[in-house]
Amino acid sequence: MKHTNPLQAFLEESDESTIAAIGSYITNHMNESWETILLNHQDILQKAYNEAGDAAYGTFLNLLFLPVHRQFKESGFHLEPKLPGHFDLSREWGNAEETDQQRWMWSTVYSSNDEAIGTIVTITFHDHTLFRIPRQPQIIALSVTSKADVIAALSLLSPDFEQALEFTVEYENYLRSQQG
Hints:
Helix 2 crosses helix 4 (about 55-75) and helix 3 (about 40-50) packs across helix 4. Strand 2 (about 90-95) and strand 3 (about 100-110) form a beta hairpin. The protein starts with 6 loop residues before the first helix and ends with a helix. The chain is of the alpha+beta class. Strands 1, 2, 3, 4 and 5 form a five-stranded antiparallel β-sheet that branches. It is built from seven helices and five strands, in the order H-H-H-H-E-E-E-E-E-H-H-H. It has helices spanning about 5-15, 20-40, 40-50, 55-75, 145-155, 160-165, 165-180, and strands at about 80, 90-95, 100-110, 115-125, 140.
């Protein structure tokens, strides 16, 4: 991670709430790293896409968030689940050509004493026709932590999120449609 300050120092210097500062910290990391990761790992990511399709985006996110997870561990925070979040609870939508999709996933942030302090939402933009990330992933920091509260907050931020189906529901519908 290129940050001059580790997460704990960043939090101590910030005048934001803890969850907002964590969101800013992760955003700063992504600003510095996302394109470099794409460039430096292009062969690995393309190979992953050729072999496993969209799972390659998970590989990219694992590479992107590895330094963040290290900083969380060093600072005594932990995430449930690890970033970018539960795929099964995620929601996705995009254009009809499927070249500009976005998936929203989230993780609850816990303090060193296991107190839930907020939620980090990861928005990943991607393409279903080839391995391509059309723009930088984004982070939303929420002070709420329950699934219902997160969904309500995200639905207020995005009508598309509100209309999109949770992955498990979307997948069940897909499987039913294939039984035809």
